[in-house]
Amino acid sequence: MNEDLETIRKRTDKAENEVKELTESFKKLKALAQNGNLVELDEGNISEELAELITQNTKLRHRLAILKRALQEEKEKSSQNTMESLLDSLTDLFTKAVTRAYPDLPDPPVLLTTSSAAQFGDYQCNAAMPIAQLLKGQGVKVSPRNVATKIKDNLDQSGLVENVEIAGPGFLNIWVSRLYCQKLLSNILTKGVLPPRLLHRHKVVVDFSSPNIAKEMHVGHLRSTIIGDSISRLLEYLGHDVERVNHLGDWGTQFGMLIAHLQEEYPNYQTESPPLADLQNFYKQSKVRFDTDEAFKKRAYECVVQLQAFNPEYTAAWQLICDVSRKENQKVYDRLDIKLTERGESFYQTRMETIVKDLKERGLLEEDEKRYIMWGLNKEQIPFTIVKSDGGFTYDTS
């Protein structure tokens, strides 16, 4: 019995010592973390897990420093080709001063506006009053005028500001350096008007033009083309990464009737190039037959299914028609100096097959009169038609 108690006592003492060691390690780690230095711990006095955490932390801090340097270099590089905003520069200057004056204040408001009269300077900073209110909420009583004085004392001598005066309860009246303005005007005269500084560069997709293959581009397509190109140019000028997408109508039922008409009118089209220069007239002929001849309409639908199955004979006919139409459209694009990346409906064909397969495997499709439909949350509403009875896809699918 006594031996058992002794064993338990030893285990308890050992556990207590381990707890003390861990507590001391934690305190030391916490102190070093607060000082921003985790590399001074004695590795002999810490566990392997803690040592690994410290190593990882050091690596992450090193990577973070590299990223910060790269980010700063990128900002400096991008600012070389942008026009400096006087208001933005002043806001940055006073934000740094406020942060330096009140480092423990989260997200302090920095409000700069143009002055209402020349006697009050060029700009005015009204941050002192709201900051005084925030400090009051933390139990610190200080007048807005004292806050304004502290902000003024922490301003960098950047050459941007010629004079700062405190007025009234705590307004900061700012006079911009005339030499600084002279420098900005000189840059405009030598470099021209540059875009403003871009805070966040985005990937922007502009979908425009998008004519239908085998149909003539009409004024609606030209309007979309010109407006879309103008938007793209403006975004590119600002520095965004712009993807100009041309979502051509190059797939669907109309190609079934075009291919069927091509096969009948020019059966040797694969070896002898058919005269399709007047593609618009060719389209009208096939459309008339499609609307009046039931047998032709049936063959057209069969051609659509074969095309969607990527039958080589039908894809060759489809490609022939598309190439003729593209050449005509390109004449318009060249004349207007339009640059586009083609992403027609055909681009998504195989992707739609993958989606349909996934929906079937998940049990989300329901067969209905040889077609596949998908219901929304409310089954009383009209369902989506995902696959038509002839095997073709719909706009719902894409």
From TrEMBL:
Record field: catalytic activity: tRNA(Arg) + L-arginine + ATP = L-arginyl-tRNA(Arg) + AMP + diphosphate
Listed GO MF terms: arginine-tRNA ligase activity; ATP binding
SUPFAM superfamilies: Arginyl-tRNA synthetase (ArgRS), N-terminal 'additional' domain, Nucleotidylyl transferase
GO CC annotation terms, alphabetical: cytoplasm
GO biological process entries: arginyl-tRNA aminoacylation
A Pfam family this chain is assigned to: tRNA-synt_1d
Coiled-coil stretches: 5-77
Keywords: Aminoacyl-tRNA synthetase, ATP-binding, Coiled coil, Ligase, Nucleotide-binding, Protein biosynthesis
Domain (Arginyl tRNA synthetase N-terminal) ranges: 88-176
PROSITE patterns assigned to the protein according to its UniProt record, in alphabetical order: AA_TRNA_LIGASE_I
Top-level lineage group: Eukaryota
EC class of the enzyme, as a word: ligase
Enzyme Commission no: 6.1.1.19
Family: Belongs to the class-I aminoacyl-tRNA synthetase family.
Name recorded for this polypeptide: Probable arginine--tRNA ligase, cytoplasmic
